[in-house]
Amino acid sequence: MKIDNNIEGYDSLGEDHIGTSSNTPLRLDAFKLSNEEKIEIIKDDVRHIMETLGLDLTDDSLNGTPNRVAKMFVKEIFGGLDPNKKPSASTFENKYKYGEMLVEKNITVYSTCEHHLLPIVGKAHVAYISNGTVVGLSKMNRIVDYYAKRPQVQERLTIQIVKELQDVLNTQDVACVIDAKHLCVNSRGIRDIESSTVTSEFGGKFKDKTVRREFLDYIKLDTKF
Ligand SMILES: [Zn+2]
Questions:
Q1: Which residues does the record give as Zn(2+) binding sites (predicted)?
Q2: Catalytic site residues?
Q3: Among 22, 98, 169, 223, which one is least packed by beta carbons within 10 Å?
Q4: Nearest-CA neighbor of 189 among 53, 17, 15?
Q5: Is the separation of the CB atoms in 186 and 52 below 8 Å?
Q6: CA distance 118 to 29
Q7: Is 176 labelled as part of a ligand binding site?
Q8: What is the pLDDT of residues 70-97, one digit of tens each?
Q9: CB within 8 A of 206, min separation 6: which ones?
Q10: In what side-by-side order are the strands of the sheet with 197-202?
């Protein structure tokens, strides 16, 4: 397996958190191995990292870590790389003839920065205006979660969520705003615990200032139950 990662400037690119594409950069052979095979390989890799750091893997506390991390990578935090986990595209007819925007706000985002493999934690706010098709509300959460569970840059995650909903709903009128903390910024490097990153993508009618304003005003609603 040859991976060309010696391109000059890649290090600084990562440090500046610049993504290179709106599609997750995947190898052509990304799905040749089964998830179980991937876990076995990654297990050895994690063990190697830990041993290189000088840790004694015979210690009871560390013994199970390689297997635990490998399973967590493949099945949980990077599980959204697996196309089989993509939320099903079931939609419904808009029977109520509800023609205004629908906003699903404060969707929890747990993702991983692809430059440092550290957590990104935040909230996504997603909206669409139906042109005859609607989706179940939880579908929007599931789509956010699916694309979040990959090595990510926040800009790409925002775009991927919008594109997926545009496909599913058969309309351009979709928007997404994400406000998130990147632990690679908060806990290391510049170590700014207060800063968060906001990204947005506005499709179709949401490019209109008034529509966009309405969406952003809904996000600001402080819903208490
Ligand atoms: Zn990072």
A1: 113, 116, 184
A2: 113-116, 154, 182, 184
A3: 223
A4: 15
A5: no
A6: 25
A7: no
A8: 999 999 999 999 999 999 878 888 887 8
A9: 127, 129, 173, 174, 175, 212, 215
A10: 151-152, 101-113, 119-129, 174-182, 197-202
The C-alpha atoms of residue 46 and residue 95 are separated, in whole angstroms, by 52
Tell me, in angstroms, the distance from the centre of ligand 1 to residue 115's CA: 5
Centroid of ligand 1 to alpha carbon of 182 (angstroms): 7
Q: What is the pLDDT of residue 3?
A: 43
User: CA-CA distances (angstroms) from residue 24 to 27, 33, 97, 130, 224?
Assistant: 10, 18, 36, 28, 36
Q: What is the pLDDT of residue 89?
A: 73
- pLDDT digit string, tens, across residues 21-77: 688 999 999 999 999 999 999 999 999 999 999 999 999 999 999 999 999 999 999
How much distance in Å is there from the Cα of 151 to the middle of ligand 1? 10
Distance from the alpha carbon of residue 47 to the mean position of ligand 1, in angstroms: 23
